Amino acid sequence: MRDENAIQLLAKVMSWTEDSALQVRSLQLLADFKYDSYQRFGPGRKFIESLALWLNQFDPSDREAALELVRDKLVFLSDDELSHLVTTAYPDLVIQERLRIVAEENAIPLHRVREIASHPRFNELRIKSLFLGLSDGARTNELRRASFGEISNEQIWQAYELGDNKVDDMLEELKDALEQAGSNSEQSRFNLIWLLDDFSGSGNTYIRYDTKNRRFKGKLQKIYSRLHRGDLVDRSNYEVYLLLYVATRQAIDHIEYWAERFTSEKGYKPLQLRVLCPIENEVRLVDSMSAPLLKLIHAQKNYDERAHDKHTLVGGTEDARLGFAGCALPVVLAHNTPNNSIYLLWGPELLKPFGLFPRVSRHREF
């Protein structure tokens, strides 16, 4: 739909007069600057049209509260912003960790950066670093490019489940790289494991405890089990880092608590959690909502029960109104809205009402 037609449709839905032109301009500015870049809109659809159709689902008396959600509460992370975080990850976190480790191993003061960086162990740790993506949002290719050639193709992989053939290729490349650098290649195993992901809202995907079966579940459990087979890492000297580009405080607290219990129980090295952009609890739509917005979110007519399935049930809530695990986030990522956000933002187009930024789920059951 043409922008002019979409604006007219929005004005009609909201019963706006010419006096409301300022609101139209501010929303159009947001659309041009960020919201039109959402990658899950239908063909030819932009934000203003999606907003008008979304608002039209609600009672006229509720539409102003819905607009308040968009205007005052929404947190939209654009593709450019996430890419910027990725480009800072290598110099700001990965290199800094290598500097710290070399300084501690050789009793060199941290402020003597040139001495640390010129130490043979610093380059050896660069070669002995392995980077694994935990989802399709890990942006492994972007991270490799941001390293300016310091990460080779055989040091980084877009998935955390590695086949034996892939492991053999990585170890062979590692041995060759160590020999070229003049380092000891007899122990061709990785020392630093970096696990990469773009966003975590609850942390449940990475680690959780199944009380029914009395065992830990999640990606971290699988990864640690694979690492401790002994063919990939030096089990006498290794570190595991979970690097999240964006994560909520709820997710950070959850991962730190359950990862510590898991690694302690299994006798593994502790997980090192690093987050580039934390989202604090103040952002959650719990204590900061107006009464009309609270009513809008919790009204039965504004929620489709089909959104709550066996996958969202893992989050421990009775429904998905406030999102997976009750995170109650107003967050949208440019490539997909996380289901940790409130349902009114991510509800798929097949459901009624649908979300303002409809989500495409990995688990399609409706």
Describe this structure in words.
The structure is a single chain. The chain is of the alpha/beta class and 366 residues long. It folds into two domains: 138 residues, no CATH class; 203 residues, no CATH class. It is 42% helix and 13% strand. The protein has 14 helices and nine strands. Strands 3-2-4-7-8 form a five-stranded parallel beta sheet, sandwiched between helices. Strand 7, helix 11 and strand 8 form a beta-alpha-beta unit. Helix 1 runs parallel beside helix 3, helix 5 packs across helix 7 and helix 5 crosses helix 8. The longest helix is centred in the first third of the chain and has 28 residues. The mean pLDDT is 93.
Shape assignment: elongated
The chain-level mean pLDDT equals 93
Indicate the radius of gyration in whole angstroms.
24 Å
Class from helix and strand fractions: alpha/beta
**What percentage of amino acids are in beta strands?**
5-15%
| Main beta sheet | 5 strands, parallel
Instruction: Give the helix proportion (percent range).
Output: 40-55%
How many independent structural domains? Answer: 2
Distance between the ends: 28 Å
Order of helices and strands: HHHHEHHHEHEHEEEHEHEHHEH
Q: List the strand order in the largest sheet.
A: 3-2-4-7-8
Oligomer state of the chains in this structure:
single chain
List unreliable stretches of 5+ residues: none
DSSP summary, beta strand count: 9
Number of helical elements: 14
Domain PRTase-CE: 54-349
Protein name: PRTase-CE domain-containing protein
Pfam family, one: PRTase-CE
Organism: Lysobacter silvisoli
